[in-house]
Every structure is written in C-alpha cells, then in structure tokens.
Amino acid sequence: MASAEDREMMEKIGRLAGRINRYKNELAGFAPTPAGRPPHHTGPVDGWRARGFPHRGGHHSARMPVYRNKTLILNGASQQKQSGDQDAGATSDASSSSWVTKNDRHLQLINSNVYKRDAPVRTAAMEQARRQKLALRDKQERAKLISHLNHMVNSGGFGSANQQAAADKYEIAVQGVRFRVAKNGSKLIRVPGENNSAKATPKIAVVGGVRFYRSKNGNLYRHGIVKAQRQSGVVKKVNVPCKQFSMTGSCTQGPRCRYVHDPHKVAICREFLQGGGCQSGEHCDLSHEPIPERTPTCLHFARDSCTKPDCKYAHVKVSPAAPVCRDFGFYGYCEKGASCPDRHVFECPDFSNTGTCKIKGCKLPHRERASVLRRGAGGRDLSSMEEEDKEMADLSSDEDGESIDDDDVDSDEVDEFIGHDEHEGLEFAEQRDFIAL
Prior knowledge:
InterPro entries: Znf_CCCH, Znf_CCCH_sf. By secondary structure, this protein is an alpha+beta fold. The protein contains twelve helices and nine strands. The protein has a domain at 139-234 and 412-436. The strands form two sheets. It has a seven-stranded mixed beta sheet.
C-alpha cells in the first residue's frame, strides 16, 4: 500500500502533466472541451448548415465562426490558470530562458543565449554581404560609364580620330563645362578656362546614366565612389589645425573633420579678455588663459603707455611695419608666442598684408591701411589685380576657400579614398580629343 508521500507526489505529477498538455494544446491552437457539453462532430450536415443553406422547413441555420485567441508567453513568466479543484494551490515553474524575435529576412524566434552567441558572426556576415553588394554596384556603374564613353567616341560624329598616348587626356563637356576624364572615369577634373569656373559646374550631373556630384573645387565625382567613401567612415587626418575649431572651440564636422582638433590650442574668449568674466564660465569652449600664444599684442605697451598692472594683453614690442601673423589671424593661436616677429591682432592676415583677400565669406576684419595699399600697388592697376585674384580663386583648392557649398564633396577625402590608379582602363577603339555630351 502506497504511503501518503507517494500519493502526494503522484498528485503533483498528475497536475503538472495536465498543465503541460493544456500548454501544448494552446500552442497547437486547440481549445479544451468544456465539461458538461457534448463534443461537436463535424460532418456533411454541419458543413451544409455552416454555409447557411436552409433546412426543409425554410429556416436558415448558419454557424458562427469560432475565434481562438492564441497567446504565447515565454519571457521568463508562465501564465497560471484556475481550473477547479485540480489546480488549486498548485505552483508554476517559471521559464528561466528568454526569447528574441528576429525579423531581418523572415520572422524567427531565437533563444537569447543562442542569439548572443551568434551575434558577432551574423554581424560580420551582414557587413560582408553589404560590401559585396556595394562593390558589385560600383563595378556595374563603372562599366556603364565606360561603355557610354566608348559609344560616344566610336559614333563618328565628333570629327576625325586622333590617337593619344594616355587615356587621362580624354575630355568631355557636361552642360557646357569641359572636364578631363581621370581615375577610370570616377573623377572628372575641371579644365581651367574662362568659361570653366567652379561656379559653372552643376551640383549633380548625369553622364551616360551615371550620377556625378560636384566637389568643393568644381570637379565631379562618381556616385558610387562618393557613397563608398562616406560609408567607409575612414577619414585621413592631416597635421593642420581646424580653423573653425580653433577660433570657436567647436566644429560642425565632428570626428569626420580631417583637420586637428586640439582643445589646448584654441583662441582666447573675447568676453573674458575684454571684461574679465564670462557667462559660460568653465563650460566655455574657448580659452580663459591669457598667455602670449593666444592674446593679441598690447598697443599701449608698444607705445610705453600701458598703466594696467593686470593687463591681459601680451606685452611684446613689435614693429608697426611688421606683417600680421597668419597663425594668430586664422587660428587665434601662435606657438611662437612672445618670440613671434609678426603682429598678433584680430585681423585678416591676407587683407592686412596684401590688401586683398581670396577667402570667400571671410569673417575676419578687413582693415585698409594706406601704407599697405601704396606698397602693394607698386604702379599696377588695382582693377587688374582684382581680375587676377578672381582667376586664381577659381583654381584654388578647398583649403583656400573655394567652397561652392557646404554640402559639396570634399575633394581631398575622395581623392585619398580612390587612390592613385595607374591603369585608367579606358580602352577606346578610336581615341578623340573631345567628347561632347
């Protein structure tokens, strides 16, 4: 005869088995049959009635559809149900494992431990697939462009053929602006000329069904190259201070800026320099350390008339005929400090030293001095000098201020991403000097 402990254990096993069976039925979508109600048998008659056909008496008898609410709860908690005296006082075992829903290609339900274990492999596979897809699109885009150029050369509508030694001498015209084909067609270099200014370059151009984007110096770069360079996230730094960061203490480009962001070599706060205090306090992005490297020269000290014992300006005697320091003027910081032979003033160095400024949108003060104008003219006509400066501005690079728009492509970054391609790959059957589009 079984003991009381054995009977109690058998009852617990029975209750647990009942819960397991009900849970399996819920997963399969079956509802349990209520007690006291005979089971409903499905047959031809029920199917006939379910479609709403009348009986012999002429009355309609249509079955209402049965709605089942399928619920699946697996995230560490099991649902408890009360079903009479059988489940009274029963304890439920909570599931210790959690689940993750994955819906990238198709809906999946994965255990969290398995998901975390396979996450690095899955991420690497997705990145590899993205790179392969990008490389395939770039290859197709390049082939499409080269095919278009070959077709234009071989069409015979542009004069007699001229054999050339190098493929990088091919020129095309895009909306009236002439460009030289380079880097396997990935780059179109603007040909210098009177009608080929940087402003004349279209912001977006289509050549043979391939989109090109304008750079800051007026060149055109293929869409695939620009997209690959931006998605790579690789920015090659140059050992040149960032003008915006040095003068304001912040840069809108952030980590993607290719210039140096040195927080210890920023300009001095004008509010602190003039009034001795700053509303931002220690949260100010500019410097509050009045050292000779970042403070302008005291004009009163140069005339031996400074009476302030706590003067924040640099007490350095510099010749009035000395030029304006370029580092201090453009960056607000000069590493030479008190030993610098040039003047440390808040002025545009180019305009103060030469009388002209080639930087478009320059925000530094432009102060005209009669001595500089007399020395700079030298018997030359000022109007001719201005025309020459405009022409040179068209040939300047990004760093010289020839920035057409802020959202244009950075020429230096894209050139470094493309690299030096010795094999141009433009194998034209009949080579011509000029291709008109």
